[in-house]
Amino acid sequence: MQRISEEEARSLFGIENKYDLMNNGERRFRLNCSADGSSYCRTVAAENGAWQNSHYHKTVSELYVVQSGWIVYAEKIDTKLQICLLREGESVTIKPLVHHNIFLSSNSVIHTIKFGSALENDWFPSSELDRITKHLDPYELFA
Q1: What is the DSSP letter of 120?
Q2: pTM across the whole model
């Protein structure tokens, strides 16, 4: 086996690692492919559970897999809001144009895979769904 350097991965294949500490305390460890917009992200939730930011994609689908802990998944299609609880080992796939948000429980770990033909930046905010979800307390909803 021969290792591929980070520089070779970036210059030859458009693949890059990116590590972020988000405003809500999540730690995200990403592997991005700029050539086709696909990506993988391992997200480790903060000590206190938190909602992410509601959004949608125009051309990309997303697969969320719960590694440990649990998440609450919310989506809005037309005027209909759906909320569900996903536990360890469960997953959900989101199609393009579906406005969605997730709440990660304390210290949970999820994997997110984006796939499909992507625009350069295929992440669009959904302030309307944020207004609906950000005040919800999943600990009360699913107690």
Answers
A1: T
A2: 0.92
Strand runs labelled E in the chain: 15-21, 27-33, 39-44, 50-51, 55-56, 61-68, 70-77, 80-87, 91-94, 99-104, 109-115, 124-125
Q: How far apart are CA 140 and CA 129, in angstroms?
A: 19
| Residue predicted with more confidence, 116 or 51 | 51
* Closest to 58 in 3D by CA, of 31, 92, 98, 93: 98
Q: Which residues of 126-142 are buried (b: 16+ CB within 10 A; e: fewer)?
A: beebbebbeeeebeeee
CATH topology of domain 6-141: Jelly Rolls (2.60.120)
Domain ranges of the chain: 6-141
